[in-house]
Hints:
Pfam families (chain A): Fer2
Domain FAD-binding FR-type (chain A): 4-109
Domain 2Fe-2S ferredoxin-type (chain A): 230-315
CATH class of the largest domain in chain A: Alpha Beta
Strand content of chain B: 15-25%
Mean pLDDT of chain B: 96
Low-confidence stretches of chain A: none
Radius of gyration of chain B: 20 Å
Helix content of chain A: 10-25%
CATH topology of the largest domain in chain A: Rossmann fold
Structural class of chain A: alpha/beta
Number of domains of chain B: 1
Radius of gyration of chain A: 22 Å
CATH superfamily of the largest domain in chain A: Nucleotide-binding domain of ferredoxin-NADP reductase (FNR) module
Protein name (chain A): Ferredoxin--NADP(+) reductase
Largest sheet of chain B: 7 strands, antiparallel
Number of strands of chain B: 10
Low-confidence stretches of chain B: none
Mean pLDDT of chain A: 90
Oligomer: heterodimer
Largest sheet of chain A: 6 strands, antiparallel
GO molecular function (chain A): 2 iron, 2 sulfur cluster binding; oxidoreductase activity
Structural class of chain B: alpha+beta
Number of strands of chain A: 18
Amino acid sequence: MIVEGKLSARVVGVDTISPTLKRFRFAPQGGGQFPTAAPGAHILVTLRGPDRVWKNSYSLVTTPEQRDQYAIIVRRADASRGGSHFLHDVITGGEAVELSAPASLFPIASLARKHILISGGIGLTPFLSYVPVLRSRKATFELHQFCSEGEAGVFRDLLGNEDGRIHVHGSTSRPALDQILADQPLGTHVYTCGPDRLMEGVAQTARRLGFPENAIHQESFGAATGGQPFVVRLTRSRKTIEVGETQTLLEALEAAGVEAPCLCRGGACGVCLVPVVDGEPEHRDHVLSDAERAEGRIIATCVSRAKSASLVLDL
Amino acid sequence: MGIQFKPTETFRGDFSYSNSDEAVLRFPFPFAEDKYMYSVNMEPHVRKGPCPVFEHAFDVDEHYIAECHERALVLESDPKRCQVLPHMMAAQWDTLELIMESLATDYPEHFSLTRDGDNWHWINRPLNTDQRFVFGDPSTLPREPFEYITRQAQGDFTIQDQRDHNLYVDGGMVTCQADWSLEFDIGMSFHEWHGPVPLAHDIGVFDRALQYLLRLQYGQPVRRLNWTMTVNPRMDTSPENYPDWGPDKLTVTPENVDRKVHLRVELQTLFRLPRSNGILFGIRCYLISLQDLERVTKWSKRLGRVLATLPPELVEYKGIARYRDMVVSRLAAVDDGAPLSLGIQPDQTSLPPRR
């Protein structure tokens, strides 16, 4: 599957799950099928509001085989940058949206003998795509969902039939993480998604109980490409260009019509290296030596960004 | 209009394989400059570029049927050329889905795929195959899904599992390889299976390539060209069969070098797989005889210049020491030394007769 650009989609359904949770369903614009999504995959959703654009990542809750629709579940957060408010308050169905190809940074481990999934609150979402896949692979697994007492029923409904492997723990009946993770068979992997405190607790408990590091998996949307916006000035072409938070430096240069060299677009080949005249780069490439990084006089535009508010490049 | 296949050509025995003029002009010539050295020369595998073989996810050409027959012959005598470790079943289905969808989309006159939920119907017209099966249920296919579909594709394939910040070659279909063995390499990590490559380790090529590939994103495959040379148009140059083809190197003379020696180019593609999070590595092999390559003036001069300046370690590693000088002197004789355009494109649209 080669995905060029974004996936054009429209909202084909909005389901209210609870006062703060809604499921948004997307279908490909003009019919057809979406690419097969990994279990645990997330998509970057681009929403165009009346006076600004939101780009937020959400875990897909649909299985790999479901390609006529993707779905996400979003909590209306009090302290959000506005994306969840916009989704909850403005999106009612029919709207056009842009989706990225589904990315997977939270895969199911191929060699695990047993899978333990531990989530908190809305952190359950990636496991909603895991569970049907683990069932169809006849894998050994258990899921523990931690939530407030009031939401326990909502999450039980989302997970479907409790079959002895699915456990929803409301606030009055919480087992300790030790209880869940102790005495597990060799080859058990643990996956966690939810509030930082829960994820750290799971990782620490697992380590203390002797889980090897490679058997502990935490969901994160990762340091993909984004970061703080910054400004770049080009000495040769005399241009000043703003690099947005979800845009790479290279993409900003290309959007401004600057002929910037590049090849792999992943920080490995070194073709895009450009001299830095002023400012402090934040290096994310795999090419530069430690000495070159410390010196800060050269930057890989395809992945690296700025620590300072601006950079001046010899370009 | 579909591809005009050449179903009876051979890659052994009488070696009747040859390229049509069209196939010569679309050959993926690997040298963009007059000198060659290892680098992380990977780029996005988008449907465009300086060579027509880049225009499809998996290139199919006039040799398709003959190459599938050749693969079946190799597997008949050595079934272990296809092996997949047990934890790679999800990657097997990913591979089958990716190849079937790509071929059906890119070549609808030759392949079709219809799906009704998990009930799939695959038609491969060139190989006269019509198969209904249940996606996800291996018992509904005549072979395991990876072997089933890679028997119907050109080029070798390996599947890499990603774990512990490394890639492991945990499966493959390898019948047209440039002197490496799946039986020997299966289960190895990235640096282990690249161990024999000279010079590149020292300049950090494999460290950087691994970091890049660990981050390979679904929907954004990448590609590179690799090359070596082979005597006779022989696909199966495996270590297992070295006694069959190693001695061929001794048969090259100044009189037959243009017919015997072939440039062997691999279009290597890497696709992130969704269900398994593995990587499918396609190694699509193209062969061109020196006498056909010479008909493209730029390629003739450039190949001569690259071979003349190739580091001795690479001459040794690529196994071309026996006849390299013969090729160089033949090509140098018609090289005026004029500068050549950068890039791999042929710079001509028709071919003169052979020299």
